[in-house]
Amino acid sequence: MSTLYLVGTPIGNLADITYRAVDTLRNVDLIACEDTRVTKKLCVHYEIQAPLKSYHDHNKEQQTDYLIEQLQQGNNIALVSDAGLPLISDPGYELVVAARDNGIRVETIPGPNAGLTALMASGLPSFTYTFLGFLPRKDKQKQSYLEQRMYENSTLIIYESPHRVKDTIKTIQKIDRDRKVSLGRELTKKFEQIVTDYVGNILDRLNDESIPTKGEFVVLIEGAEAVEDTAWFEDMSIKEHVDYHINQNMKPKIAIKQVAELRQMKTSEVYDIYHEV
């Protein structure tokens, strides 16, 4: 039976590839990759001769059908991204679904991951974390999304481009200026930099370019502190409780949801009480 291999590749340093990954890439019939120019460098370095086939967001519908046909004909295929793990904020989901729907074996060859690499060295809590990938590009959508996620008791992992990282840090500061943030850039490369500090200090370092806006960034946001003591709101009415969170810069919708979670009530019930429905 043919196999679709999901192969992790280095995120910077070419030495960060497993023996199993190299062996797999040398023995498959075809390598599907985002950018053939990027993957070609890896293939040349490790003397991998398998032909390359472009597979990215703009051609994935057409190429998925082609790759499934190749797998059905008995060819083994490896799927790689430009760096790191395929499918993790990279193309490949549709191909894996199609392979499973057609009874084709799917096997994972683990490898480096930028988000976890940055998390390990950040000094932020690592037992509970949430991977968000890339944020919405529009400012209002980005702020709304972060307002919802930054009140979770979980370290948030975000991927960001050098052109937008400063705006993202500004947005985080608007929501909570007392929050710690870690920036990781050029991970595993010669000029790797991982800086953890309060968000305002991170923004200052971006502005004075002691953190250069070059290379892809991993942004880590410290999780909100878990609320364990419920006595503080027991004497509050539902409306007072919701208004308290709104006064802490929460959006009304998020405040209502937060009150519902703290009081172990239905969100709709808190909504009706607050709005006197």
Task: Give the topology.
Elements lengths: L2 E5 L11 H9 L2 E4 L2 H10 L6 E3 L5 H13 L4 E3 L13 H9 L3 E5 L4 H9 L6 E6 L4 H11 L5 E6 L4 H11 L4 E6 L7 E6 H9 L9 E5 L16 H10 L4 H12 L3 H8 L3
How would you describe this protein?
By secondary structure, the protein is of the alpha/beta class. It has 3 domains: 107 residues, Tetrapyrrole methylase, N-terminal domain (Cobalt-precorrin-4 Transmethylase, domain 1, 3-Layer(aba) Sandwich), CATH 3.40.1010; 108 residues, Tetrapyrrole methylase, C-terminal domain (Methyltransferase, Cobalt-precorrin-4 Transmethylase, Domain 2); 44 residues, no CATH class. The chain contains 11 helices and 10 strands. The chain has a 5-stranded parallel β-sheet, with helices on both faces. A 5-stranded mixed β-sheet has the order 6-7-10-8-9, sandwiched between helices. Helix 3 packs parallel to helix 4, helix 6 crosses helix 7 and helix 7 runs antiparallel to helix 8. The protein is globular and about 70 Å long. The termini are far apart.
Task: Work out the strand percent.
Answer: 15-25%
- Number of DSSP strand runs: 10
Radius of gyration: 23 Å
Overall mean pLDDT stands at 95
CATH-scheme architecture of the largest domain: 2-Layer Sandwich
Outline:
With 277 residues, this protein is of the alpha/beta class. The protein is built from eleven helices and ten strands.
